Amino acid sequence: MNPGKVVIFCASSDQIDPAFNQAARALVRALHELDYSFVSGGGNRGTMGAIAREADACGAFHTGVLPRFMKGLEYPHLSAVEWTETMSERKELMRKDTCAAIALPGGIGTLDEFAETHTLRKLGRYHGELFVLNIKGFYNPFKALLDHYVATGMLSVQDKDLVHFPESVEELVSYFK
């Protein structure tokens, strides 16, 4: 892939395994070294905060996208902030002009963001690559669900295979070199 803008969907919770935030920071550093910029939810907590702090520390360009009702929850040193009225607008703006969408371990919001992006890719409405960073097997149940969808005819193998499931930051970054 040519360097561009990457959207990262991730956790806003502080009550998660520290390995997930460690992976997020390593991912930001590695992709920044390859001249990628970032878009995320822009929050100050959880993995969103870890990404924002790492992007800030290494000088990466990082845009945060937040709905107006989350005013005050944004990381204070984002390169740019985009405000939306709704969560749906937020997802659309986060994806805009990105070359890849990456889901890091996260909650139901992360799953929503990634599932919608996968659907849009399947329908030809999103053209970026799709990655789910499967640190410590976090996304094994999601992989199993996609396999179940294929087995029951709800999803084609080709559409399932639109999603890459790297097991480490190094494996994920190799797709970008």
Plain-language structure description:
- With 177 residues, the chain is an alpha/beta fold.
- Helices cover 42% and strands 17% of the residues.
- The chain is built from seven helices and seven strands, in the order E-H-E-H-E-E-H-E-H-E-H-H-E-H.
- The protein has helices at residues 18-33, 46-58, 87-95, 108-122, 140-151, 157-160, 169-174; strands at residues 5-9, 37-40, 62-67, 80-84, 100-103, 129-132, 163-164.
- Strands 4-3-2-1-5-6-7 form a seven-stranded parallel sheet, with helices on both faces.
- Helix 4 (108-122) links the parallel strand 5 (100-103) and strand 6.
- Helix 1 packs parallel to helix 2 (46-58).
- The longest helix has 16 residues, at 18-33.
- The protein is globular, with a radius of gyration of 15 Å.
- The protein starts with a strand and ends with a helix.
Order of helices and strands: EHEHEEHEHEHHEH
Average pLDDT, all residues: 97
The level of helicity is: 40-55%
Dominant shape: globular
What summary fits the major beta sheet?
A: 7 strands, parallel
Number of helices: 7
SS strand fraction: 15-25%
Low-confidence stretches: none
Overall number of strands: 7
Task: Round the Cα radius of gyration to an integer and report it.
Answer: 15 Å
Q: What's the N-to-C terminus distance? A: 7 Å
The side-by-side strand order for the widest beta sheet comes to 4-3-2-1-5-6-7
Overall structural class, as computed from helix and strand content, comes to alpha/beta
